[in-house]
Amino acid sequence: MCVISVIIPCYYSHATLKACLDSLERQTFRAFETIVIDSTPGMDSYRIAGEFNGVRRHKNSDRLGAHAARNLGAGMARGRILAFLDPDMTADVHWLGRLAEAHGSGRTVVGSGVDCPAGYWRTAVHLTKYGWWLPGGTASERPQLPSGGFSLDRELFLDNGGFSAQFWEDDTELSYRLRNQGHTLWHAPAALTIHFDNATLYEFLAERCDRGGDTARARMARGRWTRLECLLRLMAAPAVWMVMMARCFRYVRGSGRGIQWLAASPVIGLGLAAWVAGECRAYGESLWRR
């Protein structure tokens, strides 16, 4: 019986997909299926997925964003629970078992603990992006969950229309929707995944800026913000940066890695500043258009 459907969106993911699928083959929890949604023009990722027994794969002729690919995979899924894994992530052997335990205890929406390979730069980038969802510490509620390592009841996902597939930050947008419905977003740090990120400084800052802007646009659309609300948020940019730094430190310290945060704080501060700059650009564009 298939209990969990693991959905992996792929776009030029052939360099990391094999390691990702290898990690799923080693899972101690076996009542799952794997679905790979590939929209890469070439056949490399699709061919790699075909080397693994039981992996269901879909080749899409048109380019799909990651969230659109996840929605497509959810429609194909047979499991009661959907688990989303990125192609540049690997899963600890107990990953699915830990998620199943959390859902078995009554949790409907669960996020994994996300770690990274060793090294100063990789760690600093990772703490900036995933500082709220590290392994270590105790399981607890979170205000939002990232799509990598994210799991929830399939019917709940489908009833909500899945990811909106309009923004990069659709996992944040879906988190808000689920919270507004009264669902607890549960962080299970023992459900461990490893994320491989080889971003350069420019790529890191550009991605943070773009994500910040996308979050702001989703926030304005969802809340139907007025000009005054956009202006106030724009003026509050320095305070927003300080709040984000403080929250990041609180969660990282709660995972037992406060010293690492202090060492990485210059990079973290720069990354969060890029995020806030992206937000400000989006609010400014909105004010200009109005």
What does it look like?
The chain is of the alpha/beta class and 290 residues long. It folds into two domains: 4-195, Spore Coat Polysaccharide Biosynthesis Protein SpsA, Chain A (Alpha-Beta Complex), CATH 3.90.550; 201-289, no CATH class. 52% of the residues lie in helices and 17% in strands. The chain contains eleven helices and nine strands. It has helices spanning 14-25, 44-50, 66-76, 95-104, 120-130, 154-159, 170-180, 201-223, 227-235, 237-254, 258-289, and strands spanning 4-10, 32-38, 55-59, 81-84, 89-91, 109-115, 140-141, 150-153, 185-195. Strands 1, 2, 3, 4, 5, 6, 7, 8 and 9 form a nine-stranded mixed β-sheet that branches. It starts with a strand and ends with a helix.
Mean pLDDT: 93
- Which H/E pattern describes the elements? EHEHEHEEHEHEEHHEHHHH
Beta content: 15-25%
Largest sheet: 9 strands, mixed
The name CATH uses for the topology of the largest domain is Spore Coat Polysaccharide Biosynthesis Protein SpsA, Chain A
Structural class: alpha/beta
Q: How many individual domains?
A: 2
- The proportion of residues forming helix, as a percent range, comes to 40-55%
Give the second-level CATH assignment, the architecture of the largest domain: Alpha-Beta Complex
- C-alpha-based Rg, rounded: 19 Å
Distance between the termini: 54 Å
**Any idea of the CATH class of the largest domain?**
Alpha Beta
Shape: globular
Give the number of DSSP strands: 9
* Individual helix count: 11
Q: Which segments are poorly predicted (pLDDT under 50) over 5 or more consecutive residues? A: none
